[in-house]
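Notes from the 1:1 (GR / supervisor)

We went over the backlog. Supervisor wanted to see one worked example end to end before approving the batch request, so GR pasted a single chain during the call. The sequence is below; no edits were made to it. Supervisor asked that the structure be written out right there so they could see what the output format looks like.
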Amino acid sequence: MDNSRKSPPRAEIYSAEFEEGVRRCYEYAKELIESAEILRDQGKHSPARALAIQAEEELGKAAMLLDEIAQKKPWITERRWDDKYRDHEHKARRAHLAVQKNVVKVTEWEPSIHAYGSEPSKKVVTEGDQMKRYAKEDIERKFRSLYVDHGLIGGLRRWISPLDPNGFYSDSDIEIGLAKDCRRAVEIEAEKHGITL
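Structure output shown during the call:
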């Protein structure tokens, strides 16, 4: 018996189920955003930020399912589900792309790192590279919002706690706003396929 042949991919989710998945992701993300706003209003910014970023991921998953619908894919394989739909950064990248395509145009230029005293040069950054960077930063902020850690803050190594957020991470309004933009972007993409959320 030849074991070197791979078995055919196993279908995990069929196309008839895609729309239900979009709706469930969207509804859950809506609830996460509402919960994040409640926590923010109580001054609990770290868990609010984590929930808002989780909402972005769910909306990224919804956008990925909408991609499958647009491409008329018959199913999602078990392996693709595990590799893409459970990958935090992949979902966050797709959420950012939805926002960039439908809500807020992100510039394609960013200053490069430059030596002290010199003018910064400009370099073209591809859309994909931007989305990867944004997604990576989101996931880092999400985990910083969830766990006590020890790291570099202001040039010194010290304890970092979600109960005592530092610097740019002391407020959750940015993440909640982005989650709302993601929600709107998914609504727009869903409307293109005749799906009302």
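Supervisor's comment: Residues 45-70 form the longest helix (26 residues).
Batch request approved.
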